[in-house]
Amino acid sequence: MSNTKFILGLFDDPDLMMHGIDKLQKNSIPIYDVYTPMPIHGIDDKLGIKPSRLGYAAFMFGCLGGTTIFSLVYYFLVHDWPIDIGGKPAFAAPSFIPATFEWTVLFTAFGMTATFFFATHLFPGRAPRVMDFRATDDRFVIAIDAKGNVPHEDITNLLKEAGAVEIKHNDRKYVSYE
Amino acid sequence: MKTHNSFDEQYQFTGKVKSWSLIAIVIGVITIFAGVLTKQTEQTFDNLLLMGYYFTCVCAAGVMFCAIQYAAQAGWSASLLRVPQAFGKVLPVAGLILIVIVVSGLFITHTVTAEDGKSHVEPYLYAGWATHDLTIKGSGIYDSVIAGKSGFLNIPFFLIRMVGMLGCYSLFGWLLFKYSENEDELGGMKFYNKSFIASCVFLVIFGFTVPVFAFDTIMSLEARWFSTMFGWYNLAALWVSGLSVMTLVIIYLRKAGYLPWVTLDHLHNMGLFMFAFSVFWTYLWFAQFLLTWYANIPEEAAYFIRRWEPSFKPWFWLNIVINFGAPLLVLMSRDSKRYIGTLKAMCIILIIGHWLDYFQMIMPGTIGPKEHWYTEFSWIEPGIFIGFAGLFTFLVLNALSKFKSLIPKKHPFLAESLHHHI
User: Fold this and answer.
1) What percent of chain B shows pLDDT beyond 70?
2) Which stretches of chain B sit within 8 Å of chain A by CB?
């Protein structure tokens, strides 16, 4: 038994890679993931990736931000230290709205960034986990978990037939850890 | 998709839609006569102005849509450009109707008795500045503020501006669909480049003049009041209502079996537009409100005081709920923009919502408060709305049926639009 953990098919053309995915799927070979240097339309559907839930996170962060500042301003200006500004009542709701709006946007933006970092294991100071360096440059990479029951030879041949320019049998999942 | 064999299909304007739109026009005409005969001429005129303005704005939004797509060199919309082009084709008629309404409103007069028992003659529309004696010293109703504005707000200059602006918008609308039609015949990049230039020129002119158009047509009804936000606020209303009507027409055409190339992705984009610009509209609405409320200067606050009368306040708040709350909560999620039923319902809600918005702009300063909030509008409002809706449907679908094909088939970005995917 070989030590190969992942088999990577490197393509230099996105269309060939898409056909490669079709070919693998037709032969019931489960694809672990696909890495491309640019977004490719329709690839999520093809790989059966669930729609992102980032939008729900954004909504929740927005609600949190709006509620936080509204409560704070209410506490400051109505409860704790009411100030007479131009004869307006202490609870002058319309003037709270710009701040509420800004904090909603701020929390949404920061919250989404944090969620994205959390979901992708990207933290400042941490080496990103990459299966093949050229996937961020000019190669379109299909990664296949080598622990399946399909002989590695067959997978290699299928990738070759599909037009892969290079096929790698990697012993470790990521080429870069810490 | 059978896109390739249906490019030459023409829209057939027959059947139920045609008869219903004609019936709606008849209802509108009957309402106008009934309104005049039951001595509610003023309210009839205000409603005619409301719908004439709404109608013109929606058609102008069609030209604006085309122009923005060309100026931004957008590809996704190429396959549905015929719909806004049809709006642009109807714009001259809409403008003409608005001018007829405005002219008759300015020149048909009636005698009004003021609270002090004195009576004077004033026109049905724009009585706030077009009443003859207002700018004459010693006439009894002399108003120095209006007299000071009379260099801008006088009938000849007012009409010149209106004819000039509407004529100019119509010309560009006509140019854009003419170029597109020629492109269908001859192909090549020539007409695309021409459309690009025409669009850029149009957007500059439109951007600078549309606030003036709004100031003239609507804001001058309350001539003593002014707001520099008003023009942009009206532009946002024009754009949102135009997009809603456009989406509704596209949904109708798809249901009738046309535009098979328009996919859920295109409708999703239209939904995004509606959502985004509803928020933009609210932003401007609120900016105008907040500044007035905060500064609390009497001559500015008077505008909102009139809208806070018990008979207008419920409508004032409903306006925000419909035009901000509804799109915010419903159109935010991806699924609701991709489900045609929801999108259609939102289009209808926004169309009615922006009618209410215009109602809020016009009525408190013209016919003024009535006894109850629910008697603020009667049978005249829906009657004239139905009339104009019928007229719009008839003219736009008729214009669509005149196109040799429902797709600009030699548009350079057509392939991008046919494969649009988000």
Assistant:
1) 99
2) 286, 289-290, 293-294, 296, 332-334, 421
